[in-house]
Write a structure and sequence with these properties.
A: about 850 residues; mainly alpha; Leucine-rich Repeat Variant; B: about 425 residues; alpha+beta; D-amino Acid Aminotransferase, Chain A, domain 1; about 25% strand; disordered C terminus; transport (chain B); RNA binding (chain B)
């Protein structure tokens, strides 16, 4: 096949030509994969071929080795590994040869393809000569070959994990890369490629960073590179410093003074991309120290943990003025630009992180700046002062901040309405939001909001909701936190007198023509949700009045016909907001009997609307509508049965949605809601639901986080249908048993331990539900054969000593359920288990009330089981 | 290798409301799941406690929606009748239906006018609605209907009826009220007080119980308008001495609720569970919409229907203690319909009606209809069957009651009030 022409045609502007070419490429690939890949690598290597076709050949090669979707990627890896060995070595030879091509596009694409092949083969211990031959390339004369090789090393380090390359080769890679970075390297492109390669190789350098000499060398070269005359090298070098700050925090002490000097100079003088990285270095140090200090506050074990070196605290007197200076470098209109990121924004963000790191110490360093600038005629100074104030509200103690806030509040309220500059108003509204979020509510002893200023605050915020979209959005946010602070303040809320007006204003905002900008509509609905959530019985009638209003809004979204895909997306988003709002309202009204009673008159209509929202889409289920239906099922109780015939297919669709696993997880939760609501009336739907749930458990495509809730859901169903669960018992128990075995022995990071505990909890909740469901039925003896394994599982997780409190409570409850349901049949089995003694005693003396109560229940049930 | 993006969230609240909605949903679901399990477990512990005299400890019994901090207190005192009620208020299933029905004092139907009505009896207009037990304990209040099903689960101003952090209600305190829930104004009308603030009134006379009810209920704030910690209003009903004016007032007086007949309580009677002739119910068209029993569809069947229990000797009896015999069921029917002892069966009373000899039932013309609704816990009582029979044929009228009061000294009984037509 004349591949050049086809590749050429595949880039034609003529659609038909392009389509034919793509079709023949596809056929070629399907009929003869090795031949196809060989032709492509040959094309890529051939210096006589046009750049365009070589480039495309490289791209197709790359895409035949890797994909974004996990399962597709796995397929491609398997396909490559099973390819004929001769073909593979020919392809790889072509690739290594192309790396020395003087044509930039050819060698640049090739370095990525080589890295992809390496990503597949190196973990399989294949292509052992790759790194050796790359390193020998580094000493080649043409600079472009050197550059291509360094780039390849960089990509390679990005593709493979450090443990597949032995230290000897790591040393050689790092030596080559750092030499390529050093000032003695005359070629700028080579130096840049080396600096970027180092960024990826840093993760391989654990051993080298533990060696003082090697670390000093690497750090010196990186710091020198930050002073390179070439801006791209300076930027890449600072990126390396940022990466080092998080990967090797504990090694930084000897260099931190120098780094401060370098970064300070860059922040003040260098071009923006470099200055941003320099600020990011300090933000990253803050991240590290905040994490470490949080661990200190928690149960600090002392041995393996990294200590805090208090770099920020030491740098504070110089760092804060440097950051305050950046605040004055705002861009016009940065608030209207979603993607904006500039030095003022980075500096302010860093200032906020510094405040969280050092707490009170930052206040005296920032207050003079605020005082000096807050009333200046130049808007930049007023905005910077306000932003500085807003940034330091998290971290310092309320005692330190509240006196400042008390002075500033009136000023802020006035600025929000009167300042002529929109940028200042935006930041002022944001700062008010931060004040309400962090310093208002039951957490604070001396309230900053009194009856006197509450009215003024609300008036100002509602007025600002008529301002430009970005300011209005911040005003909504401030109101959100204002309402949140009044949650659980008792039967009467200070917002009650304004409730109607607030709701009306928020609804008005959602109807603004420009509500699509700056996330304004979303913010307005979210604030409405919070206002409803935090409302009290006094305003329950007003919340009830809101039901038909939101229903009408939702109804209106269903009227539009023949939408473009863009409109459809907007419609779906709006439906999400409205379903979310209804969910919050249902949950609120459903929680109290009198309001639930009145609310139920709308249930049929609301359910009808949710079903229509589902019907808007062909294959997917609207997550928000699903969540809302869960709340509705809970409020409706067994009457929900009347909606099941129509709703069931969407329930099934939700359970089948592996791609959007959040939707699947939400649907699983709704199955639980429905089980509890319907009890035995769920029986007609159980076959379908259980089949789908078991399918989900055995699927590799479903996100693992959905599996624990599926097990819990088994328990919900079993508890609802009782002995009818017999039908599914064997399948459910076998799935539970294999999951239980997997979850007993674990070794891994915190994330895995956390996941395992959630899996255990799901399994245990399933056992609880099944035992309680079968209790007092003539079929309890069906459970006896499973008891030994379950007791073993309980003993197993007890002895692993890594369960959390939730698992502990559920586990000891299962012991009680087992004893309660099986009674004397399980008496001797229980007595032989470790759980019935040591574990039970440990739980009985637990300080956690929930654990203690479950344990007492278990003790009672066991004493009965063994006494009979 | 392009430069790496280092943008951080700017002026954005850290929370996502959608995430919050998801999390709150999960929280609610976890709470509901816990409640459901708790309920299942508590059933077991109550059955257990009914069997054993003094268990060493009781498991937690907090299964309310609002609660966040469960009470640690355990009940360790020996089991009294009252504590059973508190346990049982968390029961579910058929056990609870029977159990609860046994705990309520069930008035007999007035088929003749008792002696000394004016001296020994109270009268009041019965509110239309659901008869239920309201139990407050451990910071929550549960109302259970006669069949044991939960009507509401809510915080109330009754002692121990809500979780209020001032600690006023000790964990030991609790209340049990005999109520009728009136749907229209969402009010619990308290018709009797069984326990108040840990103090049992089972063994007190109605006279004392009504006195206590009237003073304590008001004091507790339970009669106040609903609020966050008090979801439903409670109200006492006006109780009169059953003299001429009292009966007149109860019969014609304006009350804030729809009436469903009159209740007569003997002043000296203790709170006796089950059917009792010391409390009576009477109704006519003027004071009740539901004089003649309706069927499942709410329609009045052409023939009176009764529910009787089948005994092992094929006898059909009422729920009275001792039971009243109504007849025997044909062995064929028993076999054909697969009936068992203790089945509750539904019959129509045929044209033959009921025949009496010396005021005692002698013969009933029963037509077998089928098994009764599963929700039924008990057969009809004798007085109920008779009252319904009378309503259809020769009702006891208000004038008869008034006349009986007027001739208060007249010791003569009035069995002739029942005019047999059978």
């Amino acid at each position: 096949m004349e591949v050049t022409q086809v590749l050429f045609n595949a880039q034609s502007i003529d659609g038909t030509v392009r389509k034919n070419a793509e079709e023949s490429l596809k056929q070629f690939q399907e009929q003869n994969l090795p031949g196809f890949l060989l032709s492509l690598s040959g094309e890529l290597a051939n210096e006589e071929k046009p750049i365009e076709t070589r480039k495309l050949a490289g791209l197709i090669l790359k895409n035949s080795l890797d994909a974004k979707e996990q399962h597709r990627k796995f397929e491609l890896v398997q396909r490559w590994l099973s390819l004929d060995a001769t073909a593979k070595s020919q392809i790889k030879a072509c690739l290594l040869q192309t790396l020395s091509s003087p044509v930039f596009d050819a060698h640049s694409t090739t370095s990525q393809v080589i890295a992809k092949v390496a990503g597949i083969e190196l973990p399989q211990k294949q292509w052992p000569e790759l790194i050796g031959s790359l390193l020998s390339n580094v000493h080649q004369i043409p600079a472009y070959a050197k550059q291509a090789t360094l780039e390849t090393l960089g990509y390679l380090c990005e593709e493979v994990s450090p443990d597949v390359i032995d230290q000897d080769q790591v040393n050689k890679i790092l030596t080559a890369v750092v030499q390529g970075m050093s000032a003695s390297e005359g070629n700028i492109d080579v130096r840049l490629a080396a600096t970027r390669a180092l960024y990826n190789a840093l993760g391989f350098a654990q051993a080298n960073f533990s060696n003082d000499m090697e670390r000093d060398y690497i750090m010196r070269v990186v710091c020198e590179a930050t002073l390179s005359p070439e801006v791209r090298i300076r930027q890449a070098a600072f990126e390396c410093l940022v990466s080092i700050s998080s990967t090797y925090y504990e090694k930084l002490t000897p260099y931190i003074q120098d780094i401060f000097n370098i970064t300070a100079k860059a922040v003040r003088e260098d071009e923006e991309p470099v200055a941003l990285q320099a600020i990011e270095f300090w933000s990253s140090i803050c991240d590290e120290e905040i994490d470490i200090l949080e661990e200190y506050g928690g149960d600090f074990t002392g041995d393996s943990d990294i200590p805090c070196f208090y770099f920020i605290k030491q740098a504070l007197p110089a760092l804060v003025p440097m950051l305050l200076e950046t605040l004055l470098k705002q861009e016009e209109d940065q608030d209207q630009d979603e993607g904006a990121w500039n030095i003022a924004m980075a500096g302010g963000t860093c200032l906020g992180l510094v405040a969280r790191t050092v707490g009170d110490d930052i206040v005296p360093l920032v207050v003079p700046f605020i005082e000096e600038n807050i009333s200046k005629p130049d808007w930049r100074q007023r905005e910077a002062a306000t932003y500085a104030f807003g940034s330091i509200l998290e971290g310092p103690s309320p005692e330190k901040l509240i006196p400042l806030v008390n002075v500033a509040l009136t000023f802020m309220l006035s600025a929000l309405t009167k300042d002529p500059n929109s940028h200042v108003k935006d930041t002022t509204a944001w700062t008010l939001g931060r004040i309400f979020e962090l310093l208002h509510g039951s957490v604070v002893d001396s309230p900053i909001i009194s009856q006197a200023n509450c009215q003024q605050i609300i008036t100002v915020l509602l007025q600002s909701m008529k301002d430009t979209p970005n300011v209005a959005e911040k005003a909504c946010g401030a109101l959100y936190f204002l309402a949140q602070g009044y949650e659980e303040m008792g039967p009467s809320s200070p917002l009650t007198p304004f409730f109607q007006e607030i709701v009306q204003s928020l609804l008005t905002v959602t109807h603004r023509e420009d509500a699509g900008e700056s996330r304004l509509r979303t913010a307005a609905y979210e604030t409405l949700n919070e206002v409803v959530r935090c409302s009290t019985d006094e305003t329950a009638p007003l919340v009830l009045q809101l039901v038909p209003v939101i229903m009408m809004e939702l109804h209106n979204t269903l009227e539009g016909q023949k939408l473009s895909s863009d409109e459809r997306e907007k419609q779906s988003e709006l439906q999400g907001l409205l379903c979310g709002c209804l969910q919050v309202i249902i949950q609120k009204l459903g929680a109290s009997e009198p309001t639930k009673y009145v609310f139920m008159q709308y249930a049929d209509q609301i359910m009808g609307l949710f079903l229509r929202v589902f019907a808007c889409r062909s294959a997917t289920v609207h997550e928000e509508a699903m969540l809302a239906i869960g709340a509705l099922a809970y409020a409706t109780g067994e009457d929900f049965a009347k909606y099941m015939p129509e709703f069931y297919r969407y329930l099934e669709m939700g359970l089948q949605n592996f791609e959007e696993y959040q939707v699947c997880a939400v649907t699983v939760g709704v199955v639980g809601d429905i089980s509890r609501a319907l009890e035995e009336k769920i029986v007609p739907y159980c076959d379908g639901i259980m089949t789908q749930l078991l399918k989900n458990l055995s699927s590799n495509q479903l996100h693992r986080s959905v599996k624990p809730p599926i097990f819990s859901c088994f328990g919900d169903i079993a508890l609802a249908v009782g002995e009818y669960f017999e039908k599914y018992l064997m399948w459910a128990m076998s799935a539970l048993q294999s999951a239980a075995e997997l979850s007993t022995h674990i070794a891994g990071d915190d994330e895995l331990v956390e996941y395992t505990n959630s899996l255990r909890n799901g399994i245990l909740e399933a056992y609880s539900g099944i035992f309680q469901g079968f209790k007092n039925s003539p079929k309890t003896q069906l459970l006896i054969p499973y008891a030994p394994h379950i007791l073993q599982f309980l003993d197993g997780i007890y002895m692993e000593k890594d369960m959390d409190d939730v698992v502990m409570k559920t586990a000891i409850g299962v012991l009680g359920d087992l004893a309660d349901t099986l009674g004397s049949h399980a008496g001797s089995m229980i007595q032989q288990s470790v759980s019935s003694k040591d574990f039970l005693n440990e739980c009985l003396s637990s300080e956690d009330l929930m654990i203690k109560e479950s344990a007492e229940w278990a003790k009672l049930a066991i004493s009965r089981a063994i006494s009979v | 290798m392009a430069p790496h993006d280092i943008r951080r969230p700017f002026k954005r609240a850290a929370i996502s409301d959608q995430q919050k909605r998801r999390e709150l949903s999960l929280l609610r679901q976890a709470q509901n799941r816990r409640d459901a399990q708790q309920q299942a477990r508590c059933l077991a512990s109550s059955i257990l406690s009914l069997q054993s005299a003094a268990p060493e400890s009781q498991p937690e019994q907090s299964d309310i929606e609002l609660e966040t901090v469960p009470e640690a207190e355990q009940e360790s005192e020996a089991f009294s009748k009252d504590l059973d009620v508190r346990q049982a208020s968390k029961l579910r299933g058929p056990e609870v239906r029977k159990w609860f029905a046994r705990q309520l004092m069930l008035p007999e139907w007035m088929i003749d006018v008792p002696d000394r009505l004016a001296q020994d009896w109270y009268v009041f207009a019965r509110p239309a609605g659901k008869r239920c037990f309201v139990v407050s304990s451990n910071g929550t209040t549960v109302s259970r209907q006669r069949n044991g099903s939960i009507l509401h689960h809510f915080p109330s101003a009754l002692p121990a009826g809500a979780k209020i952090r001032d600690g006023s209600g000790s964990a030991q305190s609790y209340c049990i009220l005999d109520c009728i829930f009136h749907e229209l104004d969402q009010t619990y009308y308290v018709i009797d007080m069984v326990c108040w603030n840990g103090y049992s009134l089972y063994d007190c006379t109605a006279e004392f119980r009504f006195y206590w009810l009237n003073s304590k209920l008001e004091e507790s704030g339970a009669c106040n308008a609903p609020s966050h910690y008090h979801k439903f209003r409670f109200s006492a009903v006006p109780v009169y001495n059953c003299d001429q004016s009292g009966l007149h007032a109860a019969y014609t007086g304006v009350v804030p609720y729809a009436k469903d007949g009159l209740l007569f309580y003997n002043k000296h009677a203790l709170y006796q569970t089950g059917n009792t002739p010391l409390a009576l119910v009477w109704k006519d068209e003027n004071c009740s919409q539901y004089v003649i029993d309706t069927d499942g569809k709410g329609e009045i069947p052409s023939q009176q229907q009764v529910v009787l229990e089948l005994q092992d000797d094929r006898k059909l009896v009422t729920s009275d203690d001792p039971p009243v015999l109504f007849g025997c069921l044909d062995g064929d029917i028993i076999e054909k319909s697969g009936l068992h002892t203790e089945n509750l069966l539904r019959f129509a009373i045929g044209d033959g009606g009921l025949s009496f000899v010396d005021g005692k039932l002698e013969k009933a013309d029963l037509i077998y209809l089928g098994k009764s609704n599963r929700a039924r816990a008990f057969a009809d009582s004798y007085s109920k069957v008779l009252f319904q029979f009378m309503v259809r044929h020769s009702p006891l009228k208000i004038d008869d009651l008034l006349a009986s009061i007027n001739s208060a000294n007249d010791q003569e009984k009035t069995p002739s009030d029942i005019e047999m037509v059978g």
